[in-house]
Amino acid sequence: MKKNLTIKDIAELANVSIATVSRVLNNNSWVSDKTRTKVQKVIDEHHFSPNLMARSMISRKSMTLAVVVSDITNPYFATLVEQIEKACLQAGYKIILFDTQSANKRAGSAQVIAEDQIFNTIIDSQLDGVIILGGNIDYLKVPESYLQGLKKLIASLPVIVVGRKLARYDYTCLERDQVNCVAMITRHLLEKGYRDIAFVGGSSHVYMTGQRVATFLQTLKAAGIDEHAAAIFETNFYPEHGYDAAVKLLKSGRPLPQAILAINDRVAMGAIRALKDNGLTVPEDIAVASCEYFPGSEYFIPRITTIDHKNNEIGQQVIRQMMTILQDMLPDVSPITPQLIAGESA
């Protein structure tokens, strides 16, 4: 009986990679005309059906993906993981979760699990792919041990990162729109009449903080406001850091600003608590808004005016892209547009 050829067989007959055959089948423009003609000739001669590809590849898979997070208690990561797991189950896959517990902790802490060690574990486990959510990759200065571990990981299995794209590293990246989210919320405050705005939260060591602060200042400048006069208190990403930032602002000797822009909802919550503890009411005495919605903030009093990055959609898109990669096709990463949520705090 005649053997049904697989994409691997076609690749061997044409003396090209499996990825090249897949790109020819998908009419991808990243293939030279000469190579395309050679591969297409083999496909035509053997009456190869693309439908055989997925069946042949799936049969050799573990049907398991690794998900690496830096803090599963963080609502941002928890929402992403929830959506990733749901989409995985629908695709017939399961996940193994690795929580490094590194967020909000010092490097070298006994509570922190080194990410390069986790990468080695994932490689040894022969999983089908890995999804990285935050961690060392988001720092301005990424540790060399992490970069070496990432390089090994990329060479071993498909990698998708929700976060920062590093040059010279071949992984699929879903970058959230860090520019529009801040421009949108800053313009909202300006349109409401708030011109003296302070920025609180984030860390100067984290790449995303730099993006958001820079956009905040650029948006003020575009509105004719002296961006150099804006108060910025980079403390970190959790409620206690919002509290600390607000206290520092109140003790700074500066005039009370008209509004505070927090890097995320949790920082905003901490700032609002500190303001209340110091006899101030939001938004009557000072407005507070946030660059990033976290689940549950709509039940906070007052409801926080914030930006929804649509993490539900991001989580689902991650798995769609991973399934595409596992079928040896190039992913098509479409941008997801953030949306303003007008609450009561600003």
Automatic annotation (TrEMBL):
UniProtKB keywords: DNA-binding, Transcription, Transcription regulation
Residue ranges of every copy of the HTH lacI-type domain listed in the record: 5-59
Domain of life: Bacteria
SMART domains named among the record's database cross-references: HTH_LACI (SM00354)
Pfam families the record matches: LacI, Peripla_BP_3
UniProt keyword Cytoplasm present: no
Gene3D superfamilies: 3.40.50.2300, lambda repressor-like DNA-binding domains
Record GO terms (molecular function): DNA-binding transcription factor activity; transcription cis-regulatory region binding
Signal peptide per UniProt: none
Source organism (scientific name): Kluyvera cryocrescens (Kluyvera citrophila)
Name this protein carries in UniProt: LacI family DNA-binding transcriptional regulator
